[in-house]
Design goal:
The complex is a heterodimer of chains A (249) and B (462). With 249 residues, chain A is of the alpha/beta class. Chain A has eight helices and ten strands. In chain A, the strands form three sheets. In chain A, strands 7-6-8-9-10 form a five-stranded parallel sheet, sandwiched between helices. Chain A has a three-stranded antiparallel sheet with strand order 2-3-5, with no helix packed on it. In chain A, strands 1-4 form a two-stranded antiparallel sheet. Chain B is 41% helix and 17% strand. In chain B, strand 11 and strand 12 form a beta hairpin. Classes of the chains: A alpha/beta (249), B alpha+beta (462). The interface between A and B is large, with 59 and 57 residues.
Amino acid sequence: VSIWVARGLRDGVVTTRWPARPDAYAGSWQGPVVVAEADASTDAGCPTGAIAAGRVDQGKCILCGRCVARRPDVFAWSAGPATPVHVRQQLIMPAETDEAVEEARRRLAQRTAVLRRSVHIRHVDAGSDGSEEWEIQALLGPVYDVQRLGIFLTASPRHADVLLVTGAGAPGMASSLRTTYDGMPDPKVVIAAGTDAISGGLLSGAHSGIGDIVPVDIWLPVAPPTPFCLLGALLVAVGRLAGEGRGTR
Amino acid sequence: MTWDKIGSRIAGGDRFAGMFATRRGDGQLVLSAQVTAPDGIDTLEKILPAGAAGYPALTRTVCAAFWYERVIHDSFGVIPDGHPRLVPLILPGEPVPRHVTGYGVFTIPHGPVRSGVLESIEYLVETPGEAIPHLNMRVFYKHRGIADRYPGMTLADGVLLAEHTEGIASVAHALAFCHAAERIAGCEPPPAAALIRVLHAELERIANHLDVAVRLADAAGLAVATARFALHKERVLRLVSGLCGSRFGRGVVVPGGVSAMPRLTPAQILTGIGRLQKPVTADAAALMATSSFLDRLRGTGPLTCERARQHGALGPIGKAAGFADDARLARPYDAYPLLAVPPLRPHTAGDALARLRVRWEEVDQSFGLIRQVADQLSERPVEPGRVPCDVTSGRATGWAEAPQGEVLYDLSVAGDRIAWCVPRSASFHNLVLMHEVFAGDILTDFPFIEASFGLSVAGAAL
């Protein structure tokens, strides 16, 4: 036991202070692709069909970068890491932010006002490739440590406020996902974590994400979302971060 | 090579590596069995005419085909006559009947939604209260039908799908896919690309083995050890993202080479590795000297050497039970023939402890390989990362050694589009062995045994 006391002290505090303080690694990421210059006729060669008629559906973007390499004059990476949104249509760029988005944001804020600084999460894998689970597990590690923010993972849906769903919506998981959702008390928030969960990603020919199985409140693009993206989505979900990069509250 | 030879080939010491079926245009169903050969992987075929209801089950002579024939039955409905247990594996099926009966025996269902952040799978633990006389697994929950998505894809899209097949072994899957494509095209990646591929494959191995250490330490309740290995794993993923922009090395491996040179110089790679290796080695040594931890692993979940050889157990599970068939050594690819891969110590215990020992030795191996790669990269002139990989038609098998063991891809291309592509992950091949390792182990050993297997459900359910 005494070895571990010494080993545990070796690296000092490794935990990020984000979002209270900026974190260099959190800001070092490219987001999903955006259209830099509208050009409806461009053949982007997108493997997931995210690009059509001059618009990019970031909910389908897997960050392969093929369009940016092929037509850097038309497509570009969005600056900074991916940010979660409240309405699926917001991911279709250029986005038309309208009253529906404001309405969705307001309603979610009302529902989650009661959660504040004690949030319990139930994670469900609905057909992921396994990498999303690694990134969620990282949140529990010493570097991200979600517990410092009053966020905890729980085994029982009965104790959960947030349902964090990964994966393309495999048919075998549909009823288990629905049962988990039904088992959670109100108010509850559902996060679709990752491109697969939003649209099926590369499997979109067979699976369409989890939006058809449970009602989604927060859509978090990119495959797989980094731990900082996941952390941001959790804080936006419970109204402690405004979303779309608007800073902390 | 004829189908009837499979039994004698396996008896003669070759390894049964996989089996799948493909439906051809004229309605024929072609069964393909993959068997190791001295210089690669042989594919042995049996053609079933259109409308054939069944064929004599291979499982009767080669028991490692047990799960493979169930998957073929699920996908195509063809019946392997004489198969001992033909119930659905990757499709939902009837509730599993209890194997063990008697007074006080009950079933504990673990999953598919499990305690903790884990992939979806259901373990049905049949127990009288403490011992685990029998375990059933239902893996269909997250079956995504990966192989069905390939037909019609371009090679460039195919490698992206390979990366998303088993996300924690993205590099190994991309490598196996590209090796198949390159074998069809008859091209070889440039020397620098071959080195960069090894760099990413070995970083992936370190990250996966550290993940197993995290889970084992967590199962034993060693909070500091759990945090330490989680920190090291995060640092490995950050090094990978520093190299290529993806924490899982995605987008690096492409048919014909690599997509770009690393964003870090060889000197920076050596510095990064130097910062990692010392604390990882020291923490591993501390873990392997923590007697309360070793007590939980010693003798837990043993796989006999005979079963490991008979099944052809892959990766650390096989190596821990005296059966080592490492694709990097036996069928070397990319830069491995040019690098010195120090041999592992022989292990025969086959238990969770031996599996962890193998992983630590492999981590040492990987650090050494990465150093060699960085040294060689720094001596090379600037050269292109890829050669053209123009494939018009053909078929080949590609392989790579993932952290879980050998990954196989059978790829067929017609008219620059994929006709079929069937991945076989080490996770699928090895997971069935979990049926057999609960010799006298009790419920509290379960997390150790599962973690020590170190498999990915995504790779098993495909």
